[in-house]
Write a structure and sequence with these properties.
- It is built from seven helices and no strands.
- With 179 residues, the chain is an all-alpha fold.
- The chain has a domain of 107 residues: Cytochrome c-like domain (Cytochrome Bc1 Complex, Chain D, domain 2), CATH 1.10.760.10.
- The longest helix has 28 residues.
- 17% of the residues are buried.
């Protein structure tokens, strides 16, 4: 290719660029729109202070656990627990499955069954499975205790959570008194 051909190609590219810029400028002149001095409506946006998600638990609001547990029924909890039974055993002296055995879980320290391999998050969690702790965990386990191996989506309905907690409490050698 000789230099004359290259000059024609460069000239064509420049001409297209100038044509696009020229049409843009002409359309701005022909279709000139003035912005109003005051907007016809204002969008109010509430400013929220940013905070780290890891610092805030999903349910920092104090829950009236007595009122929550009043919603639940043990028989309903037994039905809802069938979702859990795929991974957990609830019988006395039951063996661990994919998840640990849950007999005597209410009131027990988190992550203490010796023959089950807990995640680091659960084995280092220095609390007991109280009614409140179980409620928070059952909402969405992965959010309540970051790093847990439990891949369960959680129980959104309060009645379901309350019923499962009552059912777990009943399946114990010494059920705790309900608040």
């Amino acid at each position: 290719m000789d230099s004359f051909e290259i000059n024609k190609i460069v000239a064509a590219v420049l001409m297209v660029a100038l044509l696009i810029i020229g049409i843009s400028k002409i359309s701005d002149i022909v279709f000139h729109v003035e912005k109003p001095e005051t907007p016809s409506y204002a969008v109010e946006v509430e400013q929220v202070a940013s905070s780290s998600i890891s610092e805030v638990k999903p349910t920092d609001d104090k829950i009236d656990i007595a009122a929550l547990l009043a919603m639940g029924e043990v028989s309903h909890g037994e039905k809802v627990f069938k979702k859990c039974a795929a991974c957990h055993s609830i019988v006395k002296d039951g063996k661990n499955n994919i998840g640990p055995a849950l007999y005597n879980v209410v009131g027990r320290k988190v992550g203490i069954i010796s023959d089950y391999k807990y995640s680091k998050a659960l084995s280092g969690y220095e609390k007991e499975w109280t009614f409140e702790e179980l409620n928070g965990y059952l909402i969405k386990p992965a959010k309540w205790i970051k790093g847990t191996k439990m891949a369960f989506a959680g129980l959104r309905k309060e009645k379901d959570r309350a019923s499962v907690i009552k059912y777990l409490n009943q399946n114990s050698d010494n059920p705790l008194p309900l608040p």
